[in-house]
């Protein structure tokens, strides 16, 4: 589909001004939101990351691509939210781990989880250990999810877990983790109940965990 290709190119080039029109065109052509997100938007972000990694693109290019992605998601988000009549399935507290500023993937997980009927408390980026602990006390969530994109700051995940354990709150929540460098093995190493490679499987795993409660 050429609109999917155009969208991919626009995100990869950080051409955020054309994005809204292209997303609306794709929707008009009957292309599923899933295809728009996975085949165009996310795929383009991965391409930008690879080119940044190899020195072909620079930080401003990544920022522009991120802005284009956000512009697209602003159009898509209300359409993904699903029916307001869905019964609330549970509460999720989510944040990007301490030291990490990436939030596009986390925001997609939020959209998908809300679409499945979860109430989601977004703690934002670079979230301190104590902020997760305070949010668990305040919102009494069923699930606490960590998003991590940097290999370096993934080392903070066990510290997050330790803070939750030290506050005596570990048994009250199921933990979840995801992000490009995260694996099932990583989750298993720290006794994290849920690992999800992408946003839609994260929402599905949240539903599964609630079913098992
Ligand atoms: Co950064 N960055 N970045 N970056 N960035 C990466 C991650 C990188 C892989 C690029 C590269 O070098 N190839 C690399 C990390 C290398 C590593 O550690 N493995 C990197 C680097 C090095 C950096 C800086 C250190 C660069 C620098 O300053 N020298 C710096 C770090 C700043 C910091 O965080 N302290 C930095 C900064 C930035 C920007 C600010 C410019 C921007 C972020 C903007 C923003 O988020 N608002 C940015 C971007 C855009 C990227 C890339 C290009 C794209 C990330 C993205 O949004 N992907 C990225 C390259 C890449 O990932 N290949 C890169 C699209 C998004 C939909 O996918 O986030 O993976 P993702 O989320 C997926 C899944 O992972 C999963 O679901 C999502 C959707 O399906 N998922 C979860 C995510 N969270 C989940 C939580 C769950 C479950 C699933 O809970 C259960």
Polypeptide structure, described:
The chain has 213 residues and is an alpha/beta fold. It folds into 2 domains: 2-80, Methionine synthase domain (Methyltransferase, Methionine Synthase (B12-binding Domains), Chain A, domain 1, Orthogonal Bundle); 90-212, Rossmann fold (3-Layer(aba) Sandwich). It has helices at 2-12, 19-28, 33-53, 59-80, 104-115, 129-139, 151-154, 157-166, 184-189, 199-212, and strands at 90-96, 118-122, 143-147, 174-178, 194-195. It has a 5-stranded parallel sheet, sandwiched between helices. Helix 1 (2-12) packs parallel to helix 3 (33-53). The longest helix has 22 residues, at 59-80. It is globular, with a radius of gyration of 18 Å. The model has no long low-confidence stretch (mean pLDDT 92). CO-5-methoxybenzimidazolylcobamide binds at residues 42, 45-46, 48-50, 52-53, 59, 62-63, 65-66, 99-106, 108-109, 145, 147, 149-152, 176-181, 194, 196, 198-199, 202.
Structure at a glance:
The chain has 213 residues and is α/β, with parallel strands linked by helices. Helices cover 57% and strands 11% of the residues.
């Amino acid at each position: 589909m050429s609109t999917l290709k155009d969208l991919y190119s626009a995100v990869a080039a950080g051409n955020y001004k054309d994005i809204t029109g292209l997303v609306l065109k794709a929707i008009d052509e009957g292309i599923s939101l899933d295809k728009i997100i996975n085949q165009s938007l996310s795929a383009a972000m991965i391409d930008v990351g690879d080119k940044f990694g190899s020195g072909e693109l620079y930080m401003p290019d990544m920022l522009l691509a991120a802005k284009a992605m956000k512009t697209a998601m602003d159009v898509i988000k209300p359409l993904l939210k699903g029916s307001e009549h869905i019964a609330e399935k549970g509460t999720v507290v989510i944040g990007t781990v301490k030291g990490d500023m990436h939030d596009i993937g986390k925001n997609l997980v939020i959209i998908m989880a809300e679409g499945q009927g979860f109430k989601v408390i977004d703690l934002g980026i670079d979230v301190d250990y104590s902020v997760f602990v305070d949010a668990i006390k305040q919102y009494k969530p069923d699930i606490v999810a960590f998003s991590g994109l940097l290999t370096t700051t993934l080392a903070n995940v066990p510290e997050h877990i330790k803070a939750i354990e030290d506050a005596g709150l570990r048994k009250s929540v199921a933990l979840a983790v995801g992000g490009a460098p995260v694996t099932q093995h990583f989750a298993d190493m720290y006794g994290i109940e849920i690992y999800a490679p992408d946003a839609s499987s994260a929402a599905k795993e949240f539903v599964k965990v609630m079913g098992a409660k």
